[in-house]
Amino acid sequence: MDFYDIRYLKTRSFSLNLENGSLEKPKYENYAGKSFRVLKNGSWGVYNGLVDDKLGLELAERNVMGGDVEIDQSVDSGHYEFRQRINVDSIDVEEKVKLLKEIEKELRADYIVSTRIGYIEYIREFRYTNSLGAEVSYTVPRTGIAIQAVGKDTTLQFLSKRLFRAGGFEVVSGDEPFEMASEITSKLKELLRALSPPSGKMPVLMDPSLGGVFIHEAFGHAVEADHLLRGASILKQTGIRVGPEELFVYDDPLREEFGFFPFDDEGVKARKKAVIEAGIFKEFLHSRETAKKLNGVPGNSRSQGVAEPLIRMSNTYIDEGDYEFDELLESVGNGVYLVGTRGGETNPATGYFHFSAQYGYLVINGEVGKMIKDVSLSGHTLEILKDIKIGKGLRFDPGFCGKAGQLVPVSDGGPPTVVRAFVGGA
Amino acid sequence: MANELEFQMDLEAALKFLEFNSDSWEIFHEVEVKKAVRIEKGRIKHLIAEREEGVAIRVIIDGRVGFSFTTDPDALIETCERAIRISKISEEKLDDFPEGGMSKVNGVYSREVIEGNWLKEAGETVISTVLEKKANPAEGVIEASGIKKEILNSAGSELESKETFVSAFIECVHGEGAAYDLATSRDIDIDLKRMAENASIFAIHSSKGGKIEAGRYDVVLSPLATHQLLFHALYPAFSMENVMKGRSPLANRLNDEVFGEISLIDDGMKDGLFMSSPFDDEGNPTQKTVLVDSGILKNFLKDWKWSKEVSADPTGNGIRQERNSYPVTLPTNVLVEVQAQEDYGKALYIHSFTGAHTSNPVSGDFSLECSPAVLTGEDKPIKTAMLYGNVYDLLKKVEFGGKEKIQVENTYTPWLKFSGVEVKG
């Protein structure tokens, strides 16, 4: 065999779910898994299961077929331990429940018919070895709270917000979750009376949360080099201009946000990648395999559990620009200001993307007007960034990104930005 | 053997521990063996074999439910202890677990599926079918899995079943066009050719796609598009939990006319369908539940907990999305029944939606990109169009559907035709 690697994964998680003020579905999970990969005759054979290493490698080798795979043979070694400022195990379960119940009080109003507050703590213990002698291990905790409320008037509407980060109980112990809850309560009241959005191509001012999802969907997925190797990416080469001089986009797994990781799932040390610099597309994101083929740098392979490592983003963001918020509004003139995200989807092969905001506002003559609901945004990867205007004040929003059936924690960020896109709604 | 569909974890000690330390208990024990072949740019990329065994424990102490899951055979007692500890703070209420039982369901297990030797050839069939159509089989997977599950509980339930699942996906690319399709089966007879042809044809269509004029169109949703829309925008409304928690627009509408001439039936015991099983993930027998009969709302779906909350019988819809999750109310196979016709004539045919998961499940509102789509009659491929609306309004406009039903995950449906639907370019 030419190469093998073994991943050992242990995770522990604890989750609480406060539904309409009642603590439902509390859950503890303790997972152990192992994955064996063998590269032989230019093809991978894989076996995932809790068996001893010798048998695991044998079972993996049985699945080898034949092909032309070669890999980057970088060797990194090291141990990393993410320090929790407040260890989740030092806080009683009762106290965690109490926190959720306190937050829930911020969600009370006569128009709110349903609320849900979720708490999760999750600790990932990862160990990696390979035939090149690499020895990598790390422990990374993630903690967070998600808040959702449903309001009722003539229709039902919902709003949600999430606070998830790498870290311990300190992530959720400040004022932030309370502020999120009270904002949901006040915005939901307006949303119940919101107008249907206009439709057509128009200038769109995106808040940081929507701008983050925007860069993730509209550009980030097309930068994952596996799409390129399959002949299924609209981005064929680096070095092309995709946006103005002021545009800088990064993927940074070392930022202590929700998408943090110190080593990827192929044992490669994580690095910050400049995806777009001064408007020029600079770098694809790579696995060991695509890095070898395309002469890139590996380090973006990630897995849900011990599933097959895929090229994934981490913390992806548009860096800050120079525009003040008022200047951005003025540049919109007549258009929309969109806030928050309900997720999105993109097809890297065609470059078409689509995602939804939680709500928005009409912008008329550079002034914020009435609220609009159920509004979505679509466009094309190669066109959308051309005239982007970039504001100040970087913020991140956490989420789970799905690809080939696997979810991994990511965060997306940016300052407020303005683009021209197709807006639609119900 | 590492890949046999048999249990290896010994639950004896855990059972005794739960007997002594809880009022009521349930063990959901599942082992899955899986083989998957991956396709990348017209080649078989690799073969993966996998085995995972897990145990999910629910306990009830003083009417409070605790839950804990593990895949670690050395952590069974710790897992029981955690479930018990969690129950102390839980406000999840249950007084017992179901005695349960089994329905008779055929065609859900085939030994050949897990032998897996057919997978490489199946992959080659997909690749050659796409290449013949002159598209690039860019990314695909065919997965064959076997699941053995047992449910033991303090009410005396001792149920066991073995089932197999085959599922496939292919995304084809042609120029700047792309399209994907899915296929599912319980046996190795999975229709890979249809999937590969569909994805190829629509990838080619989408590469030549033009614009569509905004306006009202007759719209046809493929079985794939139908599933994507109904699963995200409609099915959550049938869950009794969502009804009781104010999250369903169908609350208080039993026996009202909610749709046009369409029937929706949740059938968890229909032979050979993808989500059929003799019992649900809480041990209640599966059954056939008419949700909507010719447009009239007839029923909601109930897992064990929500059946007790409303003093009704469970509908066999207590389903664990993953083996590590609590059972929640989910549809099994939703059979879509409409008047059947041979052909749909001139219409906007939508193969798949992008972003269906962004639909609003509490209002039914959606704004979705249709990609790819074709204006039949003119035979004009459409690169992209936006469909907006509300799933409840849309289902009032249903006219008829095709003669042949196809299963896409939870939905068993023909193509469906709707009249006068607003489309934006």
What does this protein look like?
The complex is a heterodimer of chains A (426) and B (425). Chain A has 426 residues and is α+β, with helices and mostly antiparallel strands. Chain A folds into two domains: 189 residues, PmbA/TldD superfamily (PmbA/TldD fold, 2-Layer Sandwich); 226 residues, no CATH class. Helices cover 18% and strands 44% of the residues of chain A. In chain A, the strands form four sheets. In chain A, strands 1, 2, 3, 4, 5, 6 and 7 form a seven-stranded mixed sheet that branches. A six-stranded mixed sheet of chain A has the order 11-10-9-14-21-20. Chain A has a five-stranded mixed barrel with strand order 8-15-16-18-22. The N and C termini of chain A lie far apart (57 Å). Chain B has 425 residues and is α+β, with helices and mostly antiparallel strands. Chain B folds into two domains: 190 residues, PmbA/TldD superfamily (PmbA/TldD fold, 2-Layer Sandwich); 216 residues, no CATH class. Chain B is built from nine helices and 23 strands. In chain B, strands 7, 14, 15, 16, 17, 18, 19, 20 and 23 form a nine-stranded mixed sheet that branches. In chain B, strands 3-2-1-4-5-6 form a six-stranded antiparallel sheet, with helices on both faces. In chain B, strand 9 and strand 10 form a beta hairpin. In chain B, helix 4 runs parallel beside helix 5. Chain B starts with 11 loop residues before the first helix and ends with a strand. The mean pLDDT of chain B is 94. Classes of the chains: A alpha+beta (426), B alpha+beta (425). At the A-B interface, strand 2, strand 3, helix 1, helix 2 and strand 7 of A face strand 2, strand 3, helix 2, strand 4 and strand 16 of B.
